[in-house]
Fold each of these.
Amino acid sequence: MTSRRLIIAIDGPSGAGKGTVARALALALDYRHVDTGGMYRAVAWKAMRDGIDLTNEDAVATIANSAAFELSHGQVGIDGHDVTAAIRTPEMDAAAASVARLPKVRAALVERQRAYGIEGGVVMEGRDIGTVVFPKADVKLYLDASPEERARRRSQDPSHAASKTNAGVAVVAEALAARDQSDRTRAASPLSKAEDALYLDTTGLTIEEVVARALAAVPGRG
Ligand code: C5P
């Protein structure tokens, strides 16, 4: 058994189930859950609201450095605005992936993410947590699922606006593939599995099955 509060890193592409698993692990372990995708989304939201061009690296990085984030219980806030719903739209999917390509924005957010997790007791989900933010995380999981399954989940995700339109799975799948391509091929910290991460293919598994496998990878809980 270990009583030390651990750092648990969960990475993987969109729709692989990271959010659901991260929330469940944080609840089971009484740890803090940090959704780093929410931070990229919130920064993109604020830049758009302030009329800043999303390719203006210095201006967007200033937001990433100085904004006050509120991240708790699945809510995302930035500088006093609750943006939980506003940041989960197809437009914000693309905007977040766009600002996430900018090295200065990444550097600013990585530093802030390290500050959230440094004392342990955290389940942090994203694209580069096990590779860049916490390369020495105690537990590293890489969640994946087939593109069809991920598109199906996204189009049924009640927290995402795509589930409220009649866009259809094919349109969602196309947008997901474009974002995956951007996340995997960008120069700055592309999405990739850390060598020492446990790869979990969640295709065809229930949430309970995935959570059980993830928990089994946590020392003292296996
Ligand atoms: O996880 P989520 O889909 O909310 O992330 C939105 C976007 O933020 C991703 O498509 C990716 O471009 C970016 N992101 C990232 N690194 C992270 C988390 C998210 O680049 N750690």
Amino acid sequence: MCGIFGYIGPHQAAPLLVEGLRRLEYRGYDSTGIAVKNGAVTIHKKVGKVQELRTILPASIKGQIGIAHTRWATHGGVTDENAHPHASSEGKVVIVHNGIIENARLLRTSLEVQGVELQSETDSEALAHIIERELSIDNNPEEAVRRTLRQARGTWGICVLFTDHDTIVCARNGSPLIIGQGVEEMFISSDPHALTAHTQQVIYLEDGDIATLTATSVKLSTLTGGASDTKSSVLENNWGEAELGDFPHYMLKEIYEQPDAIRHCISGRLDRAGGSGRLGGLKLTPATLAKIPHVRLLGCGTSYNAADIGGLLIEKLARIPAVAQISSEFRHNDPVINPSALHFAVTQSGETADTISAIKEIQLKGGNVHGVVNVVGSTIARLCGRGVYIHSGPEQAVASTKAFSNMVTALTMFALQVGRSRNITKEKGIELIHGLQQIPHLLEEYLESQGPIQEAVELVKDAKSVLFLGRGISAPVAQEGALKLMEIAYIPCLAYPAGEMKHGPIALLEEGSPVIFIAPNDHVKTKTVSAIHECRARGAKIILIHEEGDDIAQEGDVCISVPKVHNLLSPLLTVVPLQLIAYHTALALGCDVDRPRNLAKSVTVE
Ligand code: M6R
């Protein structure tokens, strides 16, 4: 949540800051602001997106040092006053902050007692005042920040400007910050892809790091005052196209990118002759694989849904008990960790705070965690140190689409790899590989001819609620369809395994209630059809996602068929019409498809 961008160098900072914010906007878009130093520091900030900020910026803002912020509100409402940057009382210090200061109430009260007039309701503002107070002791920016952060409890990615010093001090604890090292210029960003236009040379700050930047130098230290051993690294340069191009929205672009994203994900990772997966980054020997007692997969939102499918596939193919769990619940339940068990952290951003906490809980109790991650070099990728990159390329719409597909693809390859070392025959492995290789082409075929999506939109767009039902491997797909429609079209949605419908949700049905069924041509299809009949008998309108050439095309009021595919791979096809229904419903309702209200792409607070 929240995006930070900073610049110090020979160029005018303001245009670079605004462009940096534009690239980071998906991280939060309640308000935006910039601060530029030209002798004094001037601040411009406003509720709304970067576009709104542009409307209040003067034609020219002079200054070659600056910091910027796009906010997802935690403490205090969405107001201009609460927007970052925040200045200290005498204006000597200006900060932007991402994270939560847990003892903010105490810090704010003690500042008020000292006579400081706070200008906002935020936790962050307190830090600006305390840094200014500490600066008055020795006029040393780095030490002032260090002493201040030692008084704070919580999480931070923070950048600090000083009117009397040509330097930016930044620090990280729980909220990502990356320094981009250019030629006689430095950049700071909350995530790497706002840096790629400027430099490939980066330093990922670690928790507890403090960095003092000038245009030509970076001095790294730690909160305790010692030297930091954080190193510089080089960004991947084939991360993928981050611009919108001819598409009206990122979400649609990313839906259409799924065939190529899957091609990247499987490229070089399938052993066709041996009928197995070849995921080197997992660093698992056949001896270790043979001894795994169980598998746990952790994730939030879409990543949890993908993890759920992964768990079903691992259990099916490798005959190892496997279960997906929601990261945000995990550590609070004091889980028992078996060091021989395999744990996966599934995440697009690699920055989700809940998943990071779950990983730390496992590591603390002696377990290992493998990442299934999109963003290369992200916190979770580095924390796990081993795992699989899903190679979706940049995903910028808040509603995740292509990352879901690639998580499922990566976990399928893993299930295949373990399955081959423990259970399934080479022939079965080769069959699944054939199926996987066909997926990109089948997706393209479906995207060419999508079926009656608009008819489905007509049924759901004015509904009080929408029920999504599927069985077996389609139950998590139902969950994913419900999440998509709910988060971007704001329609209450429920998802259930189809067999559970008669144990409660059926009470919701009345004449015309839309129910979306996901019923590929697998061994549970006939059971799902029974649930369809039960819903129809109560007046529900059925939207049926099914496979071409099966025998159930008459069962729905609206039937959307996807190409026939290997049974275990059906989620990769059936999820796409659900993504399209969500997208077109949100459009029909006039919602902001890419930036749904109250949400942010990367949820870096617990
Ligand atoms: O970056 P992550 O995959 O860890 O994010 C997890 C969820 O926050 C994310 O999937 C969220 O549910 C999406 N907005 C769903 O579309």
